[in-house]
Specification:
Length: 71
């Protein structure tokens, strides 16, 4: 195997990886929303939203955070 060929291959892979990291890294910094936070109505648990300021569409109560997945 020739050393120049290996260098070109490594440089190409590094370039592609750098581009992927650049684009995906930028996307993740735009949306810093915490994953797993879900809010539900105490009276109507099936009414859920990931928006903490959302209200229940049935009774209008403010949605409270539910951490069912954590327990
Ligand atoms: Zn409700």
């Amino acid at each position: 195997m020739e050393t120049s060929q290996i260098l070109v291959t490594v440089a190409g892979v590094a370039l592609i990886a750098g581009n992927l990291w650049f684009f995906f890294g930028k996307k993740t910094t735009i949306k810093p929303v915490a994953k797993g936070a879900l809010y539900a109505c105490p009276m109507h648990p099936w009414i859920t939203s990931d928006d903490p300021t959302a209200d229940c569409s049935i009774c209008g109560m403010k949605l409270v955070r539910s951490d069912k997945a954590g327990k």
